[in-house]
Write a structure and sequence with these properties.
Layout: H1 2-8, H2 11-23, H3 29-37, H4 41-57, H5 79-107, H6 123-139, H7 145-168, H8 174-191, E1 203-204, E2 207-208
Antiparallel strand pairs: 1-2
Helix pairs in contact: 3-7, 4-5, 4-6, 5-6, 5-8, 6-7, 6-8
Length: 210
């Protein structure tokens, strides 16, 4: 719907442009510039690359429930699952230019502060969402429970901060950012579907095993 509104010049696009004109240039420039740059190739891609390298390097159980040498349970995914997760992350980041570039050319939307075109959808917003989101999804299984709980919220906050910076700096209209989030959020959900909830513990003699 967002893409249709942008292409057709619907009411959401008019509202989008009014909001952008009201907020573009607001906020401390060094801060908003820093936030916008979170989605740049020089920042977001190294984060994902580090997550990929750590996923490839870290110890992994041979099978679910594998026990570490000192008797503790080893966190993480079996080798086959790790490789598959890494492949999905690479496919997700490769999809950013593969989808963004033709959409920019097709819709040919001018920028907020320029007559130049090719601003929808935002490549920086897409790169931030995919790189930070995929990095969190890769690292999450190996993290301790407390860190695991904040991995995805942290990725979401970084993605949100990138979008705010892009809009406040006047680099993109809000719908440029939202359109990227919708498209690549759906892609990440497709490549990394939510895991099934854990099964109930087996019962023995009518009582739960402890």
């Amino acid at each position: 719907m967002v893409t249709w509104q942008v292409a057709a010049g619907g009411p959401l696009r008019s509202l989008d442009e009014r909001i952008s004109r009201a907020v573009a240039g607001r906020g401390p420039r060094p801060l908003t510039e820093l936030l916008a740059d979170l989605g740049s190739l020089g920042i977001a891609l190294p984060v994902l690359a580090a997550a990929l390298l750590y996923t490839a390097w870290r110890p992994h159980p041979a099978a679910p429930g594998h026990t570490a040498p000192h008797g503790g349970r080893r966190h993480g995914m079996p080798r086959g699952e790790q490789g598959y997760a890494m492949l999905r992350a690479v496919l997700a980041i490769a999809a950013v230019p593969a989808l963004v570039v033709p959409l920019k050319a097709l819709l040919d939307r001018p920028g907020p502060l320029t007559e130049s075109t090719g601003y929808y959808p935002s490549g920086h917003a897409a790169t931030a969402l995919v790189a930070f989101g995929a990095a969190a999804l890769l690292l999450r299984p190996a993290l301790p429970p407390a860190a695991r709980a904040v991995a995805m919220p942290a990725a979401g906050l970084l993605t949100l901060a990138t979008g705010i910076g892009l809009v406040l700096r006047g680099y993109h209209w809000p719908l440029d950012v939202i359109g990227s989030w919708c498209l690549f959020g759906a892609l990440l959900l497709l490549l990394f579907p939510p895991a099934d909830p854990p099964a109930d513990p087996p019962r023995s003699g009518g009582q739960l095993q402890r």
